[in-house]
Design brief:
Blueprint: E1 2-6, H1 10-22, E2 26-31, H2 39-55, E3 59-62, H3 68-75, H4 82-100, E4 105-108, H5 118-132, E5 135-136, H6 145-154, H7 166-173
Parallel strand pairs: 1-2, 1-4, 2-3, 4-5
Helix pairs in contact: 1-6, 4-5
Length: 186
């Protein structure tokens, strides 16, 4: 099959690319990640994807628009749904590109992360596939989580420390608030 693989970052792409190619599929990469903050982080991840494009001969499609403001507007006052919104935005763009490019199916490297909501990603992927008329390729890439980490170290790729959005950056780096017992005044 001719499969369009949404790539969130170069590290997460390594195992899915290998597996899909080993299965005999013709794989193209698709980079669209409007959630990544700050811009320097977006740029580092984009450069790392361009690196594997060249080193691993990955044919890529770039929707290189830094749509941070649109992403933030879409999640404002719905921060608890931010992952659902983010997954949908990226998979919808991938599904549209797959339809336009006459791909047999599309999938995402997000299915390889133990830190993402696997069931929700699949649910959205299948819904987008029905909307676009392109099959969503359901693959559990989590089995290659450790192998992907090792491959990225061997290739000396930039390794990010958080999912990409401003909210995950805060969760990763901001000091955790300590809950205190209410004080009793006397």
């Amino acid at each position: 099959m001719k499969i369009l693989l949404h790539i969130c970052c170069a590290n997460c792409a390594l195992y899915p690319l290998k597996r899909l190619r080993d299965e005999g599929h013709e794989v193209f990469g698709f980079f669209y990640n409007p959630n990544i903050h700050p811009y320097q982080e977006y740029s580092r991840r984009l450069d790392a994807v361009k690196d594997i494009e060249n080193r691993l001969a990955v044919r890529m499609i770039y929707l290189d628009r830094y749509d941070l403001e649109d992403f933030l507007r879409s999640v404002a006052f719905r921060e608890g749904e931010r992952c659902r919104i983010c997954y949908h935005r990226r998979l919808e763009a991938t599904g549209r590109a797959a339809k336009k490019g006459k791909f047999d199916a599309f999938t995402t490297t997000l299915l390889g992360s133990k830190l993402q909501d696997y069931s929700l990603i699949k649910e959205i992927g299948f819904a987008v596939g029905r909307e676009q008329g392109v099959a969503f390729y359901d693959a559990d890439f989590r089995e290659g989580w450790k192998a992907g980490i090792e491959m990225s170290k061997e290739l000396n790729l930039y390794r990010q420390q958080y999912c990409g959005c401003i909210y995950s950056e805060k969760e990763r780096f901001a000091p955790k608030k300590v809950k205190r017992s209410p004080s009793i005044c006397r």
